[in-house]
Amino acid sequence: MKFQEEYRDAGAAKKLQQAIADVATRDWTIMEVCGGQTHTIVRYGIDELLPKNVELVHGPGCPVCVTPLELIDKALEIASRDDVIFCSFGDMLRVPGSHRDLFDVKACGGDVRIVYSPLDCLQIAEQNRGQTVVFFAVGFETTAPANAMAVWQAKKRNIENFAVLVSHVLVPPAIEAILSSPTNRVQGFLGAGHVCSVMGYEEYEPLADRFQIPIVVTGFEPVDLLEGIYRCVRMLEQGEVGVDNQYARAVQREGSRSAQGLIEEVFDITDRKWRGIGTIPKSGYRLRDEYQGFDAEQRFEVSDMEVQESSQCISGMILQGIHKPHQCPAFGKECTPEHPLGATMVSSEGACAAYYNYGRFLHAQDESSQLHNIPIPAD
Questions:
Q1: All structural domains of the chain
Q2: How far is CA 345 from the centre of its chain?
């Protein structure tokens, strides 16, 4: 990809590594709130390059991972109906419900399809008027504009056999919940660059002020993350509070006003349950009253379903930065990508999947070679 190499440059990474070591005089704990960032950190061993007094912990940055178990079961029940074509992005199909996943439903004859955009579902709905096409609308604020556009278009074009199963969650309330917890040990945050490209970072400023912390909006490549960590540690060392923007090439303070306007047209803010964490007030989206006809939960009368989480899975503690994946007794044993106990092991952005896929704690790694041999995969 054009210009990607400069953000994977070993020389630049090594300079930032040294700069972090030079500036860090105290113990600091920093959390990234993005599953894509988590995978980059683990893949390139960025956390292992840091001085011992700077620790990275992984937050609830994977929307698939925090989708509650009962919503997965609702999806499974809806997808099992003969009159439904159930559409989703691919990473939701292997997320386990109470007893099965969407691949099992598909194997048993359910019409479950992978799509690349929610707008694809409108074409499917127009071609299959005798069935209801349901899209599993999962994501942070990043995917909300496209999902809102699909619902808005469906209403405008009178595509009545289209519905969405909404599981949208919001980042700032999750940060607030972590900081408000008595178990919190996070002192600074790396903000999710893709979320901020849509929403900007104005809404993070009151959080930084209230909790007296630094938040650094950060990109996704190794150099991005090392620079974000450096900026965060420097602010901590100097006692600075506020929001810094490392990802200025993609993020502006105000974000995308047009995208925000579309979200506000279709969605209201609501309380939302997070898998393994519980209900966080005003942390999600729901369809506004004028769009309730497109709500799959209401249309298929599954809104009251409640289920019990696995007692073996500690994903809630992992998502809050209290534990790391390798500290789970089931990691790599009872819980693997082939037989997952929770979504963090199967999602493409899950922390457990990152630790498992990149061999973390399964074999020794030569830390000294990390910077000199940062791989650049073919695009």
A1: 65-170+255-299 (3.40.50.11740)
A2: 13
